Amino acid sequence: MSKKNNENHQHHNHHQSMINDFKKRLIVSLILTIPILLLSSIIQEFLGFNLEFLGDKYVLFGLSSIIFVYGGWPFIKGLIDEIKEKNPGMMTLIALAITVAYVYSSATIFGLEGMDFFWELATLIDIMLLGHIIEMKSIMSASNALDELVKLMPDEAHLLKDGDVKDINVSEVKVDDIILIKPGEKIPVDGIIIKGEGQVNESMVTGESKPVKKQTDSKVVGGSINGDSSLEVRVSNIGSDTYLSKIINLVDEAQKSKSKTQNIVEKTARILTFVAITVGVITFLTWSFITNDYSFALARMATVMVITCPHALGLASPLVVARSTSISAQNGLLIKNRTPFENSRKIDVIVFDKTGTLTYGNFGVNFIKVTHDDYDEKKAIQYAASIEKGSEHPIAKAIIDKAESEKIKTIDVSNFSAIKGKGVKAKIENKEFQIVSPKYLKELGIDLPDDLPDHDISTNVVLITNKEVIAVFGLSDKIREESKEAIEVLRQMNIESWMLTGDNEKTAKQVSEELGLDGYFSEVLPDEKQDKIKELQKSGKFVAMTGDGINDAPALAQADVGIAIGSGTDVAAETADIVLVKSNPLDVVSLIKLGKASYNKMVQNLGWATGYNVIAIPLAAGVLSSYGILLSPAIGAVLMSLSTVIVAINAKLLKLKD
Pick from 6, 174, 357, 498: most CB atoms within 10 A? Predict the structure, then answer.
């Protein structure tokens, strides 16, 4: 596990160092761009001022040389790498354009007749550096999931040996060692309980919403949290064999397989690279043959090749990403991975985790049945909450929360104590009251009322005194109010909604029927969740997964679009492509609408960024020169800038429609 964590940490550092390097190059390039613009004749003509001094052209050449070598180096290096891999793309196109612009412009300084492209060189490098910084940040944000998973495991374990307790590093633990798990601690490895019993919170690993009762011979999983009792555990799995390590590997594999998605900008850049080279060479050879004027032919070729790599192409994607990220943030959506976000338009099945996603992920009181004539509901809640104040159990919290929501004040109790594994008791006004399970009620020979509400998924506890039932409290994980509306809207969009949960069949069925889901999978472990996603994908479905826990991480990584609930674990948030900050299932609908709108804007921008070449390239090549129509380098540069402005305005018009 440490090796995997180290690899992920290295990848993270690599991306961060690249971003820092690009930022430095961008700052230097921007500073140099200002004097380059001021010294460029076309800018002076356009703005109506004149700035000339002895050697100004050589100063322009010197500054441009620095920006070409320092600012343009990542693209030149990228060209070399892409050529070696025989896979020319955006780096090749950018490097080709800036090299042609620099070489041709330098030639004009030293005697070649024509107008330089130095200002185009500088601004092209600036914009491409900015675009790559935006893109690399998106890539880096998706690489932190494995670190978060590893953080779940504690660094130390309490080794029991010859009656003594010794704290050792988890890496030193061996199979069959006996370790002590103290109350409230994370369990460091997989094992089997040999002494002790109590509640263990496994929700982050298995998805089960309720703490699970553990006793002698029960299995425990590393990463889960012990309750309020001590456990002695015999170690069964360590290192890469632990359940959590297997989940880490599943997440890692799924993320790597998804990262192979081909970027539409790269495809466009590859096409334009061949167009630039082919048309440029043809233009030079044709005009050289017709006119024997190599300066003119070279100017035509340079104009064609610089125009073929418009600024707009490098900004077509990043500008839409920046705009959509801003809109999404305002609407409670955090976009971490661009490609799955854009692909959300293709979703036809959304798989929801139950606990913490469609539901709140914690206990709430869903019914109270008062059965004693001397008590009403308010008094029953008051007594139960007053007794439960001394307990840390999730059921206690639910009853206390109920009292607070009803603004019912608790009263003082005395002699509070736990009835081990069965409930709690305390005295109120010198009278003993107990809150116990229905099972313990049978042991006492007390019958549970027959007319309880039909809530199969409820966990019932009973308030009694002097062997008389006062009230029955039904508790369960509550369904979010927005879940049903979200499912209905998705159905109207012809998108299927399924539920994937580690909870039992009875619970899953009731939640599914209440929400009107298209289907559900129950009692599913984390690795099986990933398999369910794969099954849907193999059937031709484009699948989104929405979840909140560690148990959802492999499925989130495997899905075509992984969506995490913001109130969930850091692991789910890091693994997912998009995070619903407000934990509202309805935001899934907003995500899909924004994804469609963003993709459409990106296609429009790419269409403009490349489409104008259909007109500009032939004109730059001089096909209409016999009619007196010839696109000069200066006009070509203006057209290129105009395309950039249009792309920027179009991106700004992106909105999330209702």
Answer: 357
Instruction: Report the C-alpha gap between 16 and 5 in whole angstroms.
Output: 16
Assigned superfamily of 362-478 = Calcium-transporting ATPase, cytoplasmic domain N (3.40.1110.10)
Active-site positions read 353
Kindly report the pTM of this predicted structure.
0.56
Superfamily of domain 325-359+480-593: HAD superfamily/HAD-like (3.40.50.1000)
Q: Which amino acid is at 213?
A: K
pLDDT at 256 over 70: no
Share of the chain above pLDDT 90, in %: 24
What would the DSSP string read from start to end of 229-292?
S-EEEEEEE-GGGSHHHHHHHHHHHHHHHHTTPPPHHHHHHHHHHHHHHHHHHHHHHHHHHHH-
Residues 339 and 320: their CA atoms lie apart, in Å, by 12
Q: How far is CA 410 from CA 356, 364, 370, 392, 428, in A?
A: 29, 18, 18, 16, 11
Model confidence band, residue 640 (pLDDT cutoffs 50, 70, 90)? low
Query: Are residues 77 and 97 in contact, defined by beta-carbon separation less than 8 angstroms?
Result: no
Between CA 128 and CA 79 the distance in angstroms is 14
The candidate with the shortest Cα–Cα distance to 434, out of 416, 449, 446, is: 416
3-state secondary structure at position 380:
helix
State how far the Cα of 436 lies from the Cα of 455, in Å rounded to an integer. Answer: 18
